[in-house]
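Batch manifest, entry 17 of 40.
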Amino acid sequence: MNKRHSTKVKKIPTTATNSLRIIGGQWRSRKINFPSTEGLRPTPDRIRETLFNWLREDIIGARCLDLFSGSGALGFEALSREAGLVAFVDNNRQVVEQVTKNCELLNAQNALVFYSSAESWLKNPANQGILYDIVFLDPPFRLKLIEPICQLLSDYNFVHAGSKIYIEMEAEGQGATLPFHWQQIRSKQAGQISYSLYEAKPLAGEGQEGESPPNKLL
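Output type: structure tokens
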């Protein structure tokens, strides 16, 4: 008698997909997907709402840089609220592919997506020469990335007087030294997340950088 042998089919692992909703602007309530990857932590709805209330006078037509873009939540919120340009930068290929798909889904014409680490992207001469009005910095927690990236933003002149720089980090990670001419104008804490908004002030009349006290992230 012939015996029927069963063959087990090996499952190919897939990356789980999560989603979030854009909370304001022309794409309000539109859903975008993002992959489940280590360290990817979209900015919560309540914090996004607070942030874009802070930026309501600045966002229309603004050139925005979304470093460590992850889900793209901040960049897509900016585009939804009529930002003039958003450059998304991330070093995770799956993240970059999904952000690109979301741009296509939303027909975002004024978005640029880059597969690169933030440090390499800022040091690349091909990316320099554009002054950004708003910079979003929401790196993975506890990797001490805020201070060196902020210094690169200043050293390579990615911001101008009046630029706004948003920084989101773990609450216990405060104390990074920022460029001396960046002034904190807003700051809040939600649970274990600390988030602040800085404005780059004019350098004229400030003296040399070494003559000014360091700016601590409080």
